[in-house]
Amino acid sequence: MNPHALTPSSLSSMPLPPIVAREAAHAAAHATRERIEERLPFSVRVVSDAEALDKAVHIRHAAYARHVPGLANTLQQPEQADFADGSLVLLAESHLDGSPLGTMRIQTNRYAPLALEQSLALPPSLRNCLLAEATRLGVADGRVGTLVKTVLFKAFYLYCLHSGVDWMVVTGRAPVDRQYLRLLFDDVYPDMGYIPMRHVGGLPHRVMKFEVGTAERRWAEARHPLYNFMILTHHPDIRLDAPEASGAPAWPETPFHAPAPTLAM
């Protein structure tokens, strides 16, 4: 008998390849609803200093230059909205060399209307709700950018979930809007199609919304492929320790406005 031959008992004790092991762990977690921990090759944090903001602006400009170069010309410096009350900027950085891999700005309507409200009025169903809009999403080119984009979306969702946000809202140009559809976003105005948006250079975008409080149930019912990643997997590399909000006066017509909480995850 070949002493090196594989037997059923030896097969069961062999370590699984990383991809197979990850899928097996996710399947087990889904069956038992136990959370698993997964490390990422990069971190996501809230920008809180000039160096981090410079990195975010750099990757933002590079990403827009690939797809909408005309708008990118206006994004070579930080924007006023990066410093506004009720806003924060997320930065994804490589663990290997600290290089920027992605960014997103989150703006709530705690202190002022959302950027998209420069171009259209929100329907009654979204009034008197706490909203958060994701803007200036930009990621590195290539395969890593796909993962970074997904992780930034998870960070956006977690921030909204723990901040008491009622609805996440986005504007998506074609074909980016289809990515939001797959995440179960739906149209704010189903019959309006693509609307020119002032804060993205007048380009036509679809305006879409996502109810935060029902996300887990809806993803579970849909057997969504990202359910395990979003709900059952803890990513310690997502760090949302938000800077303390300033004491700026709240926007007058929204009774729910309050300083954004400090998050620790």
Task: Provide an overview of this structure.
By secondary structure, the protein is of the alpha/beta class. The protein has a single domain, classed as Aminopeptidase (3-Layer(aba) Sandwich), CATH 3.40.630. The chain is built from eight helices and eleven strands. The longest helix has 21 residues, at about 145-165. The chain is globular and about 45 Å long. The N and C termini lie far apart (about 55 Å).
What is the CATH superfamily classification?
A: Gcn5-related N-acetyltransferase (GNAT)
The number of helical runs is 8
Count the strands? Answer: 11
The CA-CA distance between the termini, in Å, is 54 Å
Q: Report the principal-axis shape.
A: globular
User: Pairing-aware structural class of the strands and helices?
Assistant: alpha/beta
> Per DSSP, what share of the residues sits in E-state strands of 2 or more residues?
15-25%
Helix proportion of residues, in percent?
25-40%
The top-level CATH class is Alpha Beta
Secondary-structure blueprint:
Elements: H1 8-13, H2 18-32, E1 36-37, E2 42-46, H3 50-67, H4 69-72, E3 87-94, E4 100-108, E5 131-139, H5 143-163, E6 167-172, H6 176-182, E7 186-187, E8 195-197, E9 203-211, H7 215-221, H8 227-232, E10 233-234, E11 238-239
Parallel strand pairs: 1-10, 2-11, 5-6
Antiparallel strand pairs: 2-3, 3-4, 4-5, 6-9, 7-9, 8-9
